[in-house]
Amino acid sequence: MFDWLQHFADWLIYSVFGISAQTHLGESLNFFVLDTIKIAILLFLVTILMGIVNSYFPIDKIRNFLSRHQMYGLEYLFASSFGVITPFCSCSSVPLFIGFVKGGIPLGITFTYLITAPLVNEVAIAIFIGAFGLKVTALYVGTGITLGILGGFVLGKLKLEKHLSPWVQNIITNAETEEALEEEKQTLFQRFPFIIKEAFGIVKGVSLYIIIGIGIGAAMHGFLPTHFFEEYINKGQWYAVPLAVLMGVPMYSNAAGVIPVIQVLVAKGVPLGTAIAFMMGVIGLSFPEAMLLKKVMNWKLIAIYFGTIAIFMIISGYLFNIIL
Questions:
Q1: Cα–Cα–Cα angle for 128, 283, 254, rounded to 5 degrees
Q2: Alpha helices for 224-295 (secondary structure H)
Q3: Which of 48, 125, 58, 132 is nearest to 86 (CA)?
Q4: pLDDT tens, 312-322?
Q5: Among 24, 81, 145, 180, whose CB has the most other CB atoms within 10 angstroms?
Q6: Residue 69 in 3-state DSSP?
Q7: Greatest CA separation found in the chain?
Q8: What is the pTM of this model?
Q9: In which region does residue 165 sit, left (phi positive, over 0), alpha (psi from -120 to 50) or beta (all else)?
């Protein structure tokens, strides 16, 4: 989908600026250009899409549909399944998080998507099958979906909406007011200019956080050596799994970028469960993601979110080590 953007980043950094692709600086700058533009485009398109959806499906009806007790938790399964089919990393899924919240989707269900999307997607599945076979892949996919459902369910039960940022609270309030006033009066064609304007406003509102977050991720992506982590998680101590999750957080990457690293770690003797826990920390939690999330929630909610997911990742790592 973004091959053209990768070519643009390669051309800009390696040809226009003349920085070698073999250097840490070149790799970091290429990563920064690619992900900054990609996330801005995703945020813009998702905001437009949610604006169109809201024009046809009133916010209160969507909220009531996804909040009905009669669904017996299927709404979490739907959100997790949607996360599987969207090939986004942790930072790329943040724009959809904003769109879901703006659209009135309950926070727990939104968190389910935010957890699952970076962990399990068709790109990760394809690479995982080639690297570890069908059995491990099936277990990994099932674990990722379960992790998303449980994490979203737990976070949803904690009633954390009050910890969303004033910026998001204002977006939600405005969206509900505008929907109530205009859904019967305006056609989609009439509303479309407003939807475009709103999309630009949201991109502008989070642009600084995108730049800071991706900048941190790019520096870590280009300059932190893999063997630095390998030295510490290659041991069999009981704390290897939680340490692997914590050490994975600074190494911001997507599934396609980190799975080959996991292959190397396993080949060098790192237990598979420990290696997968490390991978989950890399693609499911990251400092850049925290910077982006700061725009939509306060630090307390970010800490609760990261802590809850880290605990589930650690449990998954131990289970993988026991089963495999």
A1: 65
A2: 226-233, 240-248, 255-267, 272-284, 287-293
A3: 125
A4: 889 888 988 88
A5: 145
A6: helix
A7: 65
A8: 0.66
A9: beta
